[in-house]
Amino acid sequence: TLKAGKITSLAESIRAIADMEDPISHTLKKTEVAKDLVFEKMYCPLGVLLIIFESRPDALVQIAALAIRSGNGLLLKGGKEAMRSNTILHKVVTSVIPDVVGKKLIGLVKSKDEIADLLKLDDVIDLVIPRGSNRLVSQIKAQTKIPVLGHADGICHVYIDKSADMDMAKRIVLDAKVDYPAACNAMETLLVHKDLNKTEGLDDLLMELAKEGVVIYGGPVAHDTLKVPKVDSFHHEYSSMACTLEFVDDVQSAIDHINRYGSAHTDCIITTDTKSADTFLQQVDSAAVFHNASTRFCDGTRFGLGA
């Protein structure tokens, strides 16, 4: 739902993008490869993007702002649940585009049936970005010759090491799970060092999660020791007030678990042991790897990169 507060924060994020340095025609590197022969590497737009996104209408505003900022043409197809909101937002966005740029820079695709036809236009569309389920991304990839940038899952882990400050761990885990469970950077699996089982700190954390309404499912070890329902698969994204918990032997076991079952999105270690932290940061193969910070910090605005 687009409430007043959400619209205000959206407007602020768009102003932040507007205030960014223009990325286009920015020279990254200049090399004289031979006398009077100069090689320049520059940022340039990709071209026309087709972005198929989920039902959150704020996504339309963020995507459109980034496309305008980076000089790209855009075709948008949002979830049907937000169709009326998206129609209004599209009107607002296109109404402020100057005539010199052209109102048709951003198009809104209303019907799902149109996507199949658009996916055939590899001479017109330069990149397709599907944001949604694994199934959606796989379907799009199978239907087009256009390059597809698809990352479907957000199976994010928090690992609590045996040396963790448990007060800090409680704050990080609660933020990572409870702040916005539907987000792709929300925690889905909590890994805990086996020495912390049945400790006061972990019991307190589990009580706080229960108090917030988080349902916990256990891996084989946690299911036996904590008597919680057994999880069907470690490769599961809840996107709701639920998570998986499992005990591991050490930091290496946590790394192996994450690299096997994770989705290479965002993973975190909570520890006071610098050596364990460095090992985790270097060996976890994810886009964002954090030490003592909530997975919710994985965000363009937080990183100072706009939306």
Automatic annotation (TrEMBL):
Q: Which residues form the Aldehyde dehydrogenase domain?
A: 6-197
Reactions mediated catalytically: L-glutamate 5-semialdehyde + phosphate + NADP(+) = L-glutamyl 5-phosphate + NADPH + H(+); L-glutamate + ATP = L-glutamyl 5-phosphate + ADP
Instruction: State the pathway, as annotated in the record.
Output: Amino-acid biosynthesis; L-proline biosynthesis; L-glutamate 5-semialdehyde from L-glutamate: step 2/2; Amino-acid biosynthesis; L-proline biosynthesis; L-glutamate 5-semialdehyde from L-glutamate: step 1/2
Q: Tell me, which GO biological process terms does this entry list?
A: L-proline biosynthetic process
SUPFAM superfamilies linked to this entry: ALDH-like
Any single GO molecular-function term of the entry would be: glutamate 5-kinase activity
**Domain of life according to the entry:** Eukaryota
- Could you list this entry's UniProt keywords, alphabetically sorted: Amino-acid biosynthesis, ATP-binding, Kinase, Multifunctional enzyme, NADP, Nucleotide-binding, Oxidoreductase, Proline biosynthesis, Transferase
InterPro entries cross-referenced by the UniProt entry? Ald_DH/histidinol_DH, Ald_DH_C, Ald_DH_N, Aldehyde_DH_dom, G-glutamylP_reductase_CS, GPR_dom
Family in the record: In the N-terminal section; belongs to the glutamate 5-kinase family. In the C-terminal section; belongs to the gamma-glutamyl phosphate reductase family.
Record-given protein name: Aldehyde dehydrogenase domain-containing protein
- Recorded source organism is Australopyrum retrofractum
